[in-house]
Design brief:
By secondary structure, the chain is α+β, with helices and mostly antiparallel strands. The protein contains nine helices and five strands. The protein folds into two domains: 126 residues, no CATH class; 113 residues, no CATH class.
Length: 250
């Protein structure tokens, strides 16, 4: 197989979709291009081909097709600058395919197919190197939660934290140890996405302690966080006095 020439992108981590262009053998300024897409999921195209067309495909096993060059024969295109602009704006790889004769259609098709096969193999190799296996399903759940928490606004994170505290109390009262552990893990994950001004080092031990006294303190700390989030300094000062009074009596 021929070595691919990447003018945009990198051979060691192909993007899975690429513009491939050729120069005319008689006119160096005339360009032809095609587009290659590697399917990110397994596709059995034979399910979508009507039986009366299957015979026209010859010996091709379309159940094994994992990428498609379109058009199969490169079409004349605009300037090289336009190809650069398209590849950059779409996030495509840009590959130089070599010299092409406009009249030699079989040779053009063979070149496109060869480049498509080579590009597909390179993408699969890169994709295989990126696949990570999480040791436990729990870790997958934590990873999903981390993505969700990173996208929430600060106020929504506080709402989520408040709901987790309620769930933890419910699990404790119902002696549901599995739900308790899962909720505690979620709380530990969520607080990493909240600012230090919320005093998480003090809050988390209180939140995980379901005794009557700490339940009241946990509620006050949550109210304090909402006050800080809303910029209500007077409310925060009043809550601080309540917290100090309770902690002083313990």
């Amino acid at each position: 197989m021929q070595q691919l020439v990447f003018e945009i992108g990198h051979a060691d981590h192909p993007r899975g979709h690429a513009l491939v262009y050729y120069r005319d053998g008689l006119d160096n300024q005339k360009l032809y291009a095609t587009y290659i897409v590697v399917f990110p999921i397994r596709v059995n195209l034979s399910k979508y081909v009507p039986p009366f067309l299957a015979g026209s495909l010859g010996t091709t096993d379309i159940s094994e097709i994992s990428s498609v060059p379109m058009p199969p024969v490169p079409e004349e295109c605009e300037t090289y600058e336009r190809l650069i602009q398209l590849a950059q704006s779409r996030g495509d790889d840009l590959i130089y395919g070599g010299i092409q004769s406009a009249g030699d259609i079989p040779a053009a098709m063979n070149s496109v197919n060869e480049i498509a096969q080579r590009y597909t193999a390179m993408w699969k190799q890169f994709d295989d190197s990126q696949q990570l296996i999480l040791p436990e399903a729990v870790e997958e759940g934590v990873a999903v939660n981390e993505v969700m928490y990173s996208l929430l606004s600060e106020h929504d994170k506080l709402n989520e934290l408040s709901q987790l505290i309620v769930r933890l109390r419910f699990a404790s009262e119902g002696h549901d140890t599995q739900l308790q552990r899962e909720t505690q893990d979620e709380i530990h994950t969520l607080v990493n996405y909240l600012p230090a001004r919320y005093d998480m080092e003090r809050f988390v031990p209180l939140a995980l302690d379901t005794s009557e006294t700490t339940t009241k303190l946990t509620q006050l700390y949550m109210e304090r966080m909402y006050g800080l989030s809303n910029g209500d300094t007077d409310r925060v000062r009043r809550i601080d006095l309540e917290i100090k009074a309770i902690e002083g009596s313990v």
